Structure of AMP-binding protein:
Amino acid sequence: MLTADAESEGLDRDFWQQEAQQLHWQHPFEQVVEFVESGPRRRWFSEGKTNLCFNALDRHLALRADRCAIIHRDFCGETHQLSYRELWQQVNALSSLMTEWGIRQGDRVLIALPMTPLAAVAMLACARLGAIHVVVYSSITSEALAQRIQACTPALFLHHSDSRGRESLPTIPSTAENMRVVDTASAAYVQQLALHMDRHVPCVWLSSSEPSHILFTSGTSGVPKGIVRDTGGYAVALLASLRHLFHLADDEVFFTSADVGWVTGHSYGIYAPLLAGLTTVMCESSAVNAPGQNWWHMVAELGITRMLTIAGAIRLARRQGPPRASLTSLRTLYLAGEPLDESTETWVRDVMAVSCENHYWQTESGWPLLAGQGTKLSAVFSRSVEVINPLNGEASPEGETGMLIIKNTLGPGAMLTLWQDDTQHDQRYWLQHRGQWCYATHDCAIKQDSVIVIQGRMDDVINIGGKRLATAEVENALSGLPGMVEVVANRTPHPLLGEMVALFVVTEALTSTQQALLKQEIRKRLVERCGRHALPRRIHFRYQLPKTFSGKFLRRMLLD
Ligand code: AMP
């Protein structure tokens, strides 16, 4: 039980003290959590020393060395397996080679590798040496790559020049100072690595709050920010989430569809399943591995028990009709990363016949902040959440849109700070509310009957003559309209009202008469569900909509 004080803080020290016992600590921690100076930054399990790689690999060797750690579905659709022992050997070999290259604790290592086990090996080798990995999506644009190199000044850049079905690869800047560039597709790399194959490299024991990685946000909400995450807090949080939120058993085969360059890929594609000694599926993106029937066949063939993806992927999969493979192995489908619409959730439940959970989180949080069924979400564990009016900081009345805040702490495993920018971290994300630090999610939400409904980013709100309408509200209202595949709501200027709704719609193959009918249906539905002010000024039909690499709509590219 929480004490009254701890409860209002959203903290359960006893719970986290206990969960931390699931890990190996080379040196025990003294305090569960403490403020850095007077806040808002926190340190978890300070004084404790541990290592992510040791906990994800070495710790399992005694009992599960032969268990499959990674199932790799390559870009041709072929399947390969790697046991915990094999993964440990490969990580040691690369750690040894990286040591020869002079990589030390605290150095940044930039990783742009395809979704093959090598990406996991590289991350774990960094963790072993105490180097900070900065993984980017391997088909990142040249411009974004240059920006990340400038921001985090890596000592080493690992990339893979063989396209492996990827459409485009970035240009590698030749000018970055003191950065060793290694092409893991080159014969030279393969030969060098072979010389280190039987080496054993001891783990570097890190203080719990030392950074394990930097992850740049996807940029859906502005300029990418370098999120810095710790070591011990991250490991404890991920393991606790698997036990108490995902309720995983010991036999799970976990498939996270996101690339390792995204937070879901980091947390539930690599670290969480390996920390728990389970099997994870790494799937290279290509036509043969696209959402839809190929995924369902993969679930059946590999016996996948849990799957974590984005609602947009399920909407794509739906276009191919009901699954034509048995999904009996699949225990739960987790959807995270964007609002979950009613019709997608109903389809998962009724047509896939699989239970579905909605998880709300941010790159900043590292793991889910809220979870629930459909759109009705509640705080995960003891977090204390509130919806406030962002103008005056007062709690929003039930049913009224405001900003979601998390009181006091995001919990272990969340960002420590922004890379070399404590000031921006403190000012952008944290506010003082009644003498307490509160994390501003910058997401609109409504609180109703003790549940939270997320409506979208604060800057995704349309102001129609003073009436505020979240784009997610409009999109939700339209979900499930026959003939419509995807819809994005956006703002368009209006001389009198200031702004009005503009819609971008992807449909099934429709004649122009059917399109005209759909427009009528859209208008009728919006008036019924959101009110007359939601009537769109324009409705554009599109063949497809611009998305980030991680599959989220790029609204700013759709400004009318
Ligand atoms: P990112 O950090 O780029 O992964 O994006 C995080 C943002 O995605 C959040 O701030 C929300 O706006 C959105 N998001 C994530 N999960 C959900 C969810 N389950 N429902 C609604 N929006 C979500």
Notes: The domain at 4-360 is CATH 3.40.50.12780 (Rossmann fold). The chain has three domains: 4-360, 382-454, 462-559. Residues 217-218, 220, 263, 336-340, 358-363, 441, 443, 454, 456-457 surround adenosine monophosphate (CB under 6 Å). The longest strand covers residues 436-448.
